[in-house]
């Protein structure tokens, strides 16, 4: 029974029908620091700053760390779900990868939207599914055993370069399959060197769109890393073009990604150009190696401080009774330290309303994996590292988003999880993890990713008793 409105005397209770208020995005609260200060915080304190902003402003707030950009962070699961499900012509991602263009050009998956994106994803999918996945999985496991056995013992190492070289080998398998290019050793090393640029602040610049004198100046100042980057990228391109031609002329096509790319045709029936294939291949190396290397570093950084968890993984491995606990450890690691604390941005192409906020054309939405994954409303004791929470429990699609979601959800999630498990299995079954200083490593930016401040510095000490090498 409606209650009368005592103010107007109307017998109908209009409050029950009133639409919730919708505010324009410009009215969302956010950091008021100058842009340069926000950029500095984004680079140096990203996760801490994100958490602070959420405490101050709630699940929706503004950030301003790029000139002229209108950046909004969202971390309410319903908002994130709505973002993932928005029609393809309303939110675009293809123009959100500008700062990565220097690594992989502007024609690959990361720059495509709507039908073109869907078609490219469909065309590439068979190279990571079914039999192709089994081949990649077997190669990732074998390579982990091979590589981890060579990682130095009884000396302090930084895990990152070792993990990164391993993940580059796995993406070689994805891209080239059983036909390794004749110049692979050089090509793999050049790709590694190209990506080292992410350790430099200049990686945030779109210097290729800047006037030439600016690029010359940046090259001349060696400490920017620009000259090192451009020299290695040039060499990597030369070798990659050769590798593409080598395969094209051999006609030896299989179920690997390069074969899929060589089979793709444009609407007019023409094949992809060598440059387009290079862009897609480099997209895979960028998307699929640094991310997983970051996750492996965090995994070892955490386990070196969590001896009971490490011991429980060992016990499970030694028993040979499945990998439920190891899987839970990997899910928990990706919860506490998602390598991309803010997943790929969505740019608003048509106005839309999410969670009582109207976003306008040009606004940029970032869902924060870090904030969602640490939300105390969804995780008890959210800051604690507790793999048990995922024992035989699948992570929620909108409350655990290290791999994003919707139309551009990560293509390599199963491959990445296989890699992390394979490395952890081999390290933990053969070594103890030793650290003099067990203070958690803070996070630092490596391009759009976060890695441990010291690249996970620790010592691998061979296990003395009951040494078992792990095959799976
Ligand atoms: C722990 C490791 C990894 C993490 C955390 C990760 C995370 C992500 C995220 C957050 C996205 C964007 C999704 C979105 O914004 O909704 C993405 C996209 C992508 N990832 Fe991964 N990724 C990982 C490993 C890999 C691997 C191993 C591969 C390749 C085998 C890969 C290939 C891709 C590709 C191609 C895309 C773009 C998909 C598209 O545009 O349709 N990733 N990844």
Walkthrough of the structure:
By secondary structure, the chain is an alpha+beta fold. It has a domain at about 35-60 and about 90-180 and about 250-335 and about 405-460: Cytochrome p450. About 45% of the residues lie in helices and about 10% in strands. The protein has 16 helices and 13 strands. It has helices at about 35-45, 45-55, 75-85, 100-105, 115-125, 130-150, 160-175, 185-195, 210-220, 225-250, 255-265, 275-305, 305-320, 325-335, 370-375, 415-430; strands at about 25, 60-65, 70-75, 90, 155-160, 345-350, 350-355, 355-360, 365, 430-435, 445, 450, 455-460. The strands form 4 sheets. Strands 2-3-9-6-4 form a 5-stranded mixed sheet. A hairpin with a 2-residue loop joins strand 7 (about 350-355) and strand 8 (about 355-360). Helix 6 (about 130-150) packs parallel to helix 16 (about 415-430), helix 7 (about 160-175) crosses helix 8 and helix 7 runs antiparallel to helix 12. The longest helix is centred in the middle third of the chain and has 30 residues, at about 275-305. Bound molecules: protoporphyrin IX containing FE (HEM). Protoporphyrin IX containing FE binds near residues 174 and 295. One of its GO terms (molecular function) is iron ion binding. It holds the Pfam family p450.
Helix content: 40-55%
Please identify the top-level CATH class of the domain at 36-58 and 89-179 and 252-334 and 405-462. Mainly Alpha
The number of helices is 16
| Average pLDDT | 92
Assess the beta-strand content as a share of residues. Answer: 5-15%
Biggest sheet, spatial arrangement of strands: 2-3-9-6-4
Label the overall shape.
globular
């Amino acid at each position: 029974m409606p209650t009368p409105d005592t103010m107007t005397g109307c017998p109908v209770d209009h409050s029950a029908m009133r639409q919730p208020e919708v505010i324009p995005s410009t009215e969302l609260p956010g950091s008021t620091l100058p842009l340069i200060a926000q950029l500095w915080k984004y680079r140096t304190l990203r996760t801490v700053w994100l958490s602070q902003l959420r405490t101050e402003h709630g699940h929706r707030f503004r950030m301003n760390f790029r000139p002229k950009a209108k950046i909004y962070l969202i971390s309410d699961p319903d908002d994130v779900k709505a973002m993932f499900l928005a029609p393809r012509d309303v939110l675009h991602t293809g123009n959100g990868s500008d700062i990565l263009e220097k690594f992989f050009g502007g024609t690959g998956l990361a720059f495509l939207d709507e039908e073109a994106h869907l078609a490219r994803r469909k065309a590439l999918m068979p190279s990571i599914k079914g039999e192709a996945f089994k081949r990649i999985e077997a190669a990732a496991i074998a390579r982990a055993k091979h590589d981890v056995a060579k990682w130095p013992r009884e000396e302090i190492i930084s895990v990152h370069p070792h993990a990164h070289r391993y993940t580059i080998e796995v993406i070689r398998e994805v891209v080239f399959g059983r036909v390794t290019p004749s110049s692979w050793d050089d090509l793999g090393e050049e790709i590694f060197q190209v990506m080292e640029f992410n350790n430099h602040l200049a990686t945030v610049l779109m210097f290729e769109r800047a006037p030439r004198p600016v690029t010359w100046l940046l090259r001349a100042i060696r400490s920017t890393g620009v000259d090192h980057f451009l020299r290695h990228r040039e060499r990597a391109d030369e070798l990659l073009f050769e590798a593409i031609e080598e395969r094209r002329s051999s006609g030896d096509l299989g179920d690997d990604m390069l074969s899929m790319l060589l089979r793709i045709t444009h609407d007019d029936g023409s094949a992809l150009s060598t440059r387009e294939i290079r862009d897609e291949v480099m997209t895979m190396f960028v998307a699929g190696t640094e991310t997983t290397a970051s996750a492996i570093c965090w995994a070892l950084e955490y386990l070196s401080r969590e001896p009971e968890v490490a011991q429980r993984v060992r016990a499970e491995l030694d028993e040979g009774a499945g990998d439920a606990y190891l899987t839970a450890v990997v899910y928990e690691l990706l919860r506490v330290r998602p390598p991309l604390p803010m997943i790929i941005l969505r740019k608003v192409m048509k106005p839309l309303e999410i969670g009582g906020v109207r976003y306008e054309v040009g606004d940029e939405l970032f869902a924060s994996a870090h904030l969602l994954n640490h939300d105390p409303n969804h995780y008890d004791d959210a800051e604690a590292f507790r793999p048990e929470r995922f024992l035989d429990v699948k992570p929620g699609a909108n409350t655990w988003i290290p791999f994003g979601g919707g139309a551009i959800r990560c293509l390599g999630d199963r491959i990445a999880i296989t890699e992390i498990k394979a490395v952890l299995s081999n390290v933990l079954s053969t070594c103890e993890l030793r650290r003099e200083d067990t203070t958690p490593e803070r996070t630092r930016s490596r391009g759009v990713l976060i890695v441990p401040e010291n690249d996970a510095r620790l010592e691998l000490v061979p296990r003395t008793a009951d040494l078992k090498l792990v095959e799976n």
